[in-house]
Design brief:
By secondary structure, the protein is an alpha+beta fold. Helices cover 30% and strands 18% of the residues. The protein contains 7 helices and 10 strands. Helix 1 crosses helix 4, helix 4 packs antiparallel against helix 5 and helix 4 packs across helix 6. Bound molecules: zinc ion. The site of zinc ion (ZN) has 7 residues, from helix 1.
Length: 266
């Protein structure tokens, strides 16, 4: 057995790999031990997943959705109280309680104020953040592995497919400086507002593959309504924009006209 990232023998590896970090609520999509070796697993958790989870936009999401880290913590959130008093909010989901921490002189100011408003910094644009594309490249390759995991030949193919090496190396080493990713919100983080049945249940995360008419492969992932798309073939996203224009902007997660790994050689 070989690791799908470094291609080294991995039969003695002991850790299972969470395709999406546990800190984002994933308990379902897990690869058995050896598909990703212990070395790569450890590296990704320190150098790719942690920086992604620490992005201001992602910390805000974890705060609002009560997403606990593996250690059971929710990252505190910094904000401002009318208009310039810094505040640190900490969530205690077990007690459904949020504490707000301000300095003593600031507390006096707040108590005197007629009106108190809480403000949070605007979520930064995730598109231009290099760690996002490495995070997605890692998940994309693992999502393919998840579909092939029942077929040893499929996993061997995944290790040997040179067309996936650019993506693989980007996840492993960040070789490509700028790998554009398409990011947009497709439904509110508390529930989905459009979908096949128009139902509003909360979707934590979902993913699928899209093959365009031009034969480009895309991986599409939604985390709490934020859709991320990466081209599996290389650092180019115009094909996805083109696809969106042609299909009226519907998310590939909600159309079964395309996608699926049926077309991939086994
Ligand atoms: Zn490895």
């Amino acid at each position: 057995m070989r690791c799908i990232f470094c291609k080294n023998p991995s039969s003695s590896s002991k850790s299972v790999e969470h395709v999406i970090p546990e800190s984002l609520g994933n308990k379902r999509h897990v690869l058995p031990r050896g598909i990703v070796c212990d070395g790569c697993n450890n590296y990704f958790s320190r150098k790719v997943e942690k920086p992604f989870l620490d992005l201001p936009a992602v910390r805000q999401l974890r705060f609002h959705q009560d997403l606990e880290s593996k250690r059971g913590n929710i990252p505190p959130l910094s904000g401002l109280i009318t208009p310039d008093i810094p505040v640190l909010l900490t969530r205690y989901p077990k007690y459904d309680f949020t504490s707000a921490q301000v300095s003593e002189p600031d507390l006096a100011k707040i108590l005197q104020a007629k009106e108190v408003t809480m403000m949070f910094p605007l979520v930064v644009d995730l598109t231009g953040t290099p760690i996002v594309s490495r995070f997605l490249a890692k998940i994309a390759l693992e999502a393919i592995a998840l579909r092939l995991v029942e077929f040893p030949k499929g996993i061997a193919y995944l290790c040997d497919e040179v067309q996936l090496d650019v993506l693989r190396d980007h996840a492993r080493k960040g070789y490509t400086n700028h790998w554009p990713v398409h990011v947009r919100t497709i439904y509110h983080q508390d529930g989905k507002t459009f979908g096949p049945n128009g139902n509003a249940e909360q979707i934590v995360h979902e993913f699928d593959f899209l093959v365009s008419d031009q034969g480009e492969w895309f991986f599409v992932l939604a985390i709490f309504g934020v859709e991320f798309t990466i081209n599996l073939g290389g650092p180019e996203i115009s094909g996805y924009r083109h696809w969106l224009e042609q299909t009226g902007g519907i998310s590939p997660l909600y159309t079964d006209r395309y996608g699926g790994l049926a077309a991939m050689p086994k």
